[in-house]
Design a protein that fits this description.
Length: 95
């Protein structure tokens, strides 16, 4: 069981890496990679690492690339991501 979670975690990391590399040329492919990573995570009950959680929208689950389809701001000790696809905000505490 633990081996399956390690395999799933490695696959999730690879999918996010591929999503960031292919976003410029094929944004829809990046969104698909994010979707697949989430499905793997849910199926194996593996948590997505916190640094990767910020790379997709919590509402529409699209891959986020700051400057392209996402706006990043800081306010009141929070990092605020604004998704330009679904027009929703995500707030993360600043440490």
């Amino acid at each position: 069981m633990k081996n399956n979670k390690n395999i799933a975690l490695n696959r999730i990391k690879v999918l996010f890496k591929q999503a960031s590399e292919s976003f410029k040329d094929h944004p829809e492919r990046s969104h698909r990679y994010t979707h697949l990573a989430r499905k793997i995570s849910m199926k194996t009950k593996t948590k997505i690492p916190s640094n990767l959680k910020r790379k997709f929208c919590k509402h529409c689950y699209k891959f986020l690339q700051p400057g392209a389809n996402c706006r990043v701001r800081t306010k009141n000790k929070k990092v605020i991501y604004y998704c330009l696809n679904c027009k929703r905000y995500m707030r993360f505490p600043l440490k």
